[in-house]
Amino acid sequence: MNIWLSGKIQDSINEMNKNITSYRFDLYAQTLYELIWDEYCDWYLELTKPILKSKNKEEVEETKYFLFHSLNTILKMAHPLIPFITEEIWSKTQDLAPTKEKGKLLAECALPQASEWKKDKKINKEIVFLKSLITGVRKIRAEMGISPGKSVNIIVVGENNEDMSLFNKYQQMFKEIARVSNINTEANLDTVPASATFVVNQLTLNIPLIDIIDKNSEIKRLTKNISKLEKALESVSSRLKNKNYLANAPENIVKKEKDLHASQLNEITKLKKQLKVLEEI
Known about the structure:
The protein is α+β, with helices and mostly antiparallel strands. Helix content is 65%, strand content 8%. It is built from ten helices and four strands. The protein has helices at 2-21, 25-52, 57-78, 83-92, 121-144, 161-169, 171-178, 215-241, 243-248, 251-279; strands spanning 152-157, 180-184, 195-200, 203-208. A four-stranded mixed beta sheet has the order 2-1-4-3. A hairpin with a 2-residue loop joins strand 3 and strand 4 (203-208). Helix 8 (215-241) packs antiparallel against helix 10. 20% of the residues are buried.
C-alpha cells in the first residue's frame, strides 16, 4: 500500500509543478483534490486498516510512519492554496514531526520534491486489481440491495494462473475490506448457483444470492423501478420521434434528450438482468 501511494504522490507532485509553472491553478487544485480525496482518504486509509490490525509489528510501524509522512507531504502541497487550514492541521502534528521540522511553521517548509518518492508500476497494477475487486463487490451490494454490513460469500472462477495468484496474494485484505466471509476458488461455472457476477481481468467473481436477500421484496422493487423507467423512456422516445421537435429544439437540448434515452435504456437493461438472476434463485 505504501509503495502504491508513494507513486501516486510522485505523480501528483510532478503534475502540481507543471500546473504551477503554467499558472493553471484550477488544475493544481484538481490534482490535489484527486490525490487527497480519491487516493489518500477514499483508498489508502481504507487499505491500511487491515495492516494496522496485523501482528507484524515492523509492517505496522512502517505504515504508521508512512501515514504521517504522506499526510505532511500533502499538507505542504496544499498549503499555497489553503494556507489556514493546512497550517492548523500541521500544528496538531508537531509531536510526530521529524527533528528538522519541529517548531517550524508550514509556510517555512519547502514544497516536496518528486524525487523523494518512489514509484513501482507492478505494485500500482496490483492495487488497481485489488480496488477493482472491492469496487465490484460494493457495486453489487448497491445494485442488489444487500446491506453494506452483511457478509457475503464469493465463488471465484478463472483459469489464468497469474490472476489467481494475484487474487490469492491480496485475498485476506480483500475479505476484510469487502466484508467477505468465505471464498471458494475450486468451483467451475457449471456448479455456480444463481449469483450476481462481475469480472476482473480474467477472473469471474460470483456472489450467491440465496439467503442474503429477500427475494420477493427485491423482485417487487425491481419490477416497480423497471416500470417507472419504461414510462419515462416512452416519454423521451416520443419526443425524439417528433420531427418538429427535432427540427426546432436547440441542439444541446436534443443531445441531452438522446443521452437521457441511452442512459434509461442502459438502466432498464441492467435492472432486467438483475431481475432475471433473482427469478432463477
